[in-house]
UniProtKB/TrEMBL annotation:
Protein name: Glycosyltransferase RgtA/B/C/D-like domain-containing protein
Keyword set includes Membrane: yes
Domain of life: Bacteria
UniProt entry keywords in alphabetical sequence: Membrane, Transmembrane, Transmembrane helix
Lineage, opening ranks: Bacteria, Bacillati, Actinomycetota, Actinomycetes, Streptosporangiales
């Protein structure tokens, strides 16, 4: 059967979200049951994946006016992005920030298939109060350890671990990031036009934060697939229209809701992004659109997965976020209740017209411009302060000293959020996107188009709320994570839409002699968007983080006896390496919080009493010498000195910093006499 380029583009760009949704729908219950194994993953997840990929993409309506070159360029951009990110992928396994935390989470569930993580204190020193089992991003609760984050991204990256162990794990994010670019191209092709999809995909692919998060095991690439892909599915559902008892429109709407809801399984802050979807379901109900029920049902099921993952498997993390999460939960309840009340109130009246009074559409457009101008002016008006976290303040003060800035550890830099967007995609993109949203708000008020309403609601809401309160440690590229999932794609989408609209206006409405300028002006506009984006990306995109960590991890594990019980004697090493040793080496591990020689010797004796070999660990050999017999020499098992991400506050990141990963171990066999206390 001959497939047109429009059909192929529609189907290919649905593949990532359909595959991810089907996989997560099966994989998370397996993890809950404690049987997340390769065998069950293949036996249960495989058929679900195949069935979804066979059924759903075929339901997508064709994308009109799609030339072959547009399809080929989208595929080329996606492939090139994947190739570059694979070449520059990181090996972040030592926990300092979230990427390595996700990597350790992934490795644990891929290897063992269950949560929580047992402390195995009975193999060290029982309930000795001198020991603790928590580390960065891993919480000690009673006699188990819970990972910090939600399970969505680790469940996806586990496929890479199953395929090729640690090498497969670190190569999974580049592939996922490329699939996110492909998904975004599908959204642009539907909303703006297939001819503009390659440009939008290229802008996102070149953008520094998109490249950066796709090189390490962050959750954002998976979240992009789920949320942007959910918008793609919703567009197709509305385009197909649900008819009769059940139709293609119903199926696509159900899949759209499930995908969007499962975004909450990936990131807890997706709850904020989903609030407009609730309101949109209400609008569909009032408009008597049959897509409302399956969309709402899918959203509820997917969000249910997320709430189980959060409150069932990441509860200590949610408790840590309580100051921001509890108000969001309260607001979510108000949105759900308000939507239900609104549906009841408007059921007979229908959706109110937004073009009455006649000045209202224009006022809405003006309000968009004024709001963006106010956000842009914030750095001129005030400085935001108040981290609420002492460790964050200390770190910010250190970065300020490195950059030669006035030391102000309490500063959050939140007022600069729009400046961050300008760094990464250029101020021309910011300007054109703002004008585009104003144009769309006016257009939707005059002639609502359901296919555009949901993306406009979700993306505008997320941009506004994120820019007002990024709520992230403000050093870069780290802080750009808050922009990656939806904010930067939104600015690119809207800016490209404005170029397409302007070209159309010139071609159709300009004087005849000027109409030939439409294409040159579009090319100039594309270059204006692309060049600043590429210039910023060139700053840090030519290095690899933590190279050598996989080999060093394997060496460390090889040097640990099978009967080892590891005692880490300094807190910095415990924070970074405890879960690596416990999870990737598979041996009981704890931190000794009271490091006087008498206490350490006592715990070593308790380990020996259990017939196990005691292994002391620290970041320097000198830290171990006070506890060792003279005949035992520490070994430098983990020795990695390479590059890592920089940290900047007042300018885009450029160039790498040094990473020094050191772990020294000393094995005290159970057959050795416990050293005497001098």
């Amino acid at each position: 059967m001959h497939l047109s380029p429009g059909t192929l583009l529609a189907r290919v760009t649905l593949v990532p979200v359909v595959a991810a949704t089907a996989w997560l729908a099966v994989a998370f219950p397996l993890l809950c049951l404690g049987h997340f194994t390769p065998l069950l993953g293949v036996l249960l997840g495989g058929p679900a994946l195949v069935a979804a990929l066979v059924l759903l993409p075929r339901l997508a309506p064709d994308i009109d006016d799609t030339p072959w070159w547009a399809l080929l360029l989208v595929v080329l951009v996606t492939a090139a992005f994947a190739a570059v990110q694979l070449a520059y992928h990181s090996e972040q396994l030592v926990v300092r920030r979230d990427a390595a935390s996700y990597a350790q989470y992934t490795a644990w569930i891929a290897e063992y298939g269950f949560l929580p993580i047992p402390q195995q204190r009975e193999l060290i020193a029982g309930n000795d109060p001198a020991l603790t089992y928590h580390s960065l991003a891993y919480y000690q609760v009673d006699d188990v350890v819970w990972p910090q984050f939600l399970a969505g991204a680790p469940l996806v990256y586990a496929l890479g671990f199953w395929a090729a162990d640690l090498e497969g794990l670190v190569l999974a994010p580049p592939v996922t990031g490329a699939l996110a670019v492909l998904t975004f191209a599908g959204l642009v092709a539907r909303l703006v036009g297939a001819r503009w999809a390659p440009l939008a995909a290229l802008l996102l692919a070149v953008c520094l934060p998109q490249q950066w998060i796709s090189r390490s095991t962050y959750s954002e690439p998976v979240a992009q697939i789920m949320l942007l892909g959910g918008l793609v599915l919703a567009y197709d559902a509305l385009e197909r229209r649900a008819r009769g008892r059940w139709s293609a429109g119903h199926t696509l709407a159900l899949a759209a809701g499930l995908s969007l809801g499962l975004g909450l399984l990936v990131r807890i802050d997706a709850l904020r992004d989903l609030l407009p979807v609730v309101g949109f379901v209400g609008l569909l109900l009032v408009a008597r659109r049959r897509e409302a029920t399956p969309l709402g049902l899918g959203l509820a099921v997917g969000a249910g997965y997320g709430f189980v993952a959060g409150f069932g498997y990441s509860r200590p993390y949610l408790n840590y976020l309580a100051d921001s999460l509890n108000p969001l939960l309260f607001i979510s309840g108000i949105v759900v209740g308000g939507t239900a009340a609104g549906v009841l109130l408007l059921w007979r009246r229908g959706i109110p017209r937004l073009d009455r009074p006649p000045w209202l559409p224009t006022a809405g457009a003006v309000l968009v411009v004024v709001a963006m101008a106010a956000i842009a002016a914030r750095p001129l008006l005030f400085v935001q302060r108040g981290h609420g976290d002492e460790a964050t303040g200390i770190y910010i003060g250190q970065v300020q000293e490195i950059e030669g800035l006035p030391v102000d550890p309490d500063r959050t830099y939140e007022e600069m959020s729009l400046t961050w967007v300008g760094w990464y995609v250029g101020w021309a993109t910011v300007l054109l996107a703002t004008l585009s949203v104003a144009l769309l708000v006016r257009r939707m008020a005059l002639r609502p188009t359901p296919q555009w309403v949901l993306p406009l609601m979700v993306l505008s809401w997320t941009v506004g709320t994120t820019l007002l309160r990024p709520a992230i440690t403000p050093d870069h590229p780290w802080a750009s994570r808050r922009l990656v999932t939806l904010v930067l794609p939104a600015f690119i989408l809207f800016a490209v839409f404005f170029l397409a609209w302007a070209r159309h206006r010139v071609r159709d409405r300009a004087p005849h002699r000027l109409r030939r300028l439409g294409t040159p002006l579009a090319v100039l506009g594309a270059a204006t968007l692309l060049l600043p984006t590429a210039a910023t990306a060139a700053g840090i995109m030519t290095y690899r983080m933590d190279v050598g960590s996989i080999a060093a991890t394997r060496q460390t594990c090889a040097e640990l006896p099978d009967t080892a019980s590891v005692l880490i004697v300094d807190p910095n090493t415990a924070a970074k390496f405890m879960q690596l040793i416990r999870g990737m080496c598979g041996v009981p591990t704890a931190q000794v919080v009271e490091t006087d020689p008498e206490t350490v010797h006592r715990i070593v004796a308790e380990v020996h009493d259990r017939g196990r070999d005691a292994v002391l660990a620290a970041d320097r050999a000198e830290r171990l010498h006070p506890y060792l017999p003279p005949w035992i020499v520490p070994r430098h098992s983990f020795d990695v000195h390479t590059e890592q991400d920089p940290s900047t506050l007042m300018k885009p990141p450029a160039g790498a910093w040094r990473f020094n990963g050191d772990l020294w171990i000393a094995v005290i066999p159970a057959t050795a006499a416990t050293p005497s206390i001098s």
